[in-house]
Amino acid sequence: MWTGANVHSPLPLYNQGCQGDESKPALSIHRKETEPASSCTMTLTQAEKAAVVTIWAKVATQADAIGAESLERLFFSYPQTKTYFPHFDLSQGSAQLRGHGSKVMSAIGEAVKNIEDIRGALAKLSELHAYILRVDPVNFKLLSHCILCSVAARYPSDFTPEVHAAWDKFLSSVSSVLTEKYR
User: Fold this and answer.
1) Where is 6: in which H helix or E strand?
2) pLDDT in tens, 25-74
3) Which residues have a Cβ under 8 Å from the Cβ of 153 and sit 6 or more positions away?
4) Which helix (H) or strand (E) holds 7?
5) Where on the phi/psi map is residue 134: left (φ > 0), alpha (ψ -120 to 50), or beta?
């Protein structure tokens, strides 16, 4: 269970600061209107893909708990994100929080399973969040970082700087794909 401990990266990565530290900028992935949509996601190397898949094998066994913990981190660190869940019981360990955490991690699992085509794997989810739910795109980056912190806290010996960088890059790609429909 997350207790509010802060996990810091030993590397200068794409996102930093687990507790809503907005003094450290997050990587902003933008594309020019003339660039194809595929240019807005980062390309993972084979070693990075392997690192993501290897850690996912461990994460998958606790995905529901990690999803709920990540949402708890999100709502604690970025309380403005609660506005998208007015009908949810957002108390720690609630059934609705666990249920949505499970959905979030299921989507991450689909992205891992389809790591060669994250865009295709998450296309419907991107449309849902952009056109129906109208979630502010910045929230995907915030949640991705909370997932990164939760995974790092659960698997500290496996979460080497290289694995951290690979997961950060992977989650940044997932966030980018989920915000493509906003452009």
Assistant:
1) none
2) 333 333 333 334 444 457 899 999 999 999 999 999 999 999 999 999 99
3) 2, 5, 7
4) none
5) left
